[in-house]
Design goal:
alpha+beta; 196 residues; Aminopeptidase; 7-stranded mixed β-sheet
Length: 196
């Protein structure tokens, strides 16, 4: 493997929208997201990250192909749907950094890159000296979902090892089209957070 790493901040993230969008579609197509994405929707979604001055992307390439990536952004710069549960719970949003995707193609898992992604995002967050909490959200699928692979292992143990705790009191609902469906459906998303 000829792996190389890049970092992008704010508006510079837009320079890799194509690569990042294609990677998101490929990884999130698998369980538990089952996301039937389009590149045009991806580019629209990613504008939020490019528009944030403190937005951050860290990505890994194998040759010319982006094979893994992770993003983060101040929670204040996130969409209303992401901010809402924290606003309703009375959090100071100016102290929270939101972690977006942390995605790797299957062939590159088990190499320590997932830990590297968290290290890079947490270091970026700490660099400002003003944030006390990091968080992210994950889809909640019912037990025994028909699309769940037999050997499926959720990421919960990895996230717990990284010091994150699930907070069921913080939830959002996002809508997208599942693979094989004809219309989008709403999915519950639960948040995980860590005090820095």
């Amino acid at each position: 493997m000829n792996l190389s790493f890049i970092s992008k901040h704010g508006g510079k993230i837009a320079t890799v929208f194509e690569d990042l969008g294609q990677l998101r579609i490929a990884v999130f197509r698998d369980f538990p997201y089952l996301y039937e994405g389009t590149l045009s929707h991806e580019k629209e979604y990613l504008q939020t990250y490019a528009a944030a001055e403190r937005g951050f992307l860290f990505a890994v390439y194998d040759g010319l192909q982006m094979v893994g990536a992770t993003t983060c952004i101040p929670l204040l710069n996130e969409t209303p749907e992401v901010r809402l549960p924290f606003e309703e719970a009375g959090y100071d949003l100016s102290k929270i950094f939101y972690f977006g995707e942390s995605i790797l193609l299957p062939a590159y898992r088990g190499l320590g890159l997932g830990h590297r992604f968290f290290d890079e995002r947490e270091a970026h967050t700490r660099s400002f000296g003003t944030y006390t909490t990091t968080c992210f959200c994950a889809v909640v699928r019912e037990d025994n979902h028909p699309a769940q692979p037999q050997n499926y292992r959720p990421n919960d143990a990895f996230w717990l090892k990284r010091g994150y705790q699930k907070d069921p009191s913080l939830q959002s609902s996002f809508e997208w089209l599942d693979v094989g469906d004809t219309s989008p459906t709403v999915k519950p998303m639960v948040y995980w957070k860590k005090e820095l």
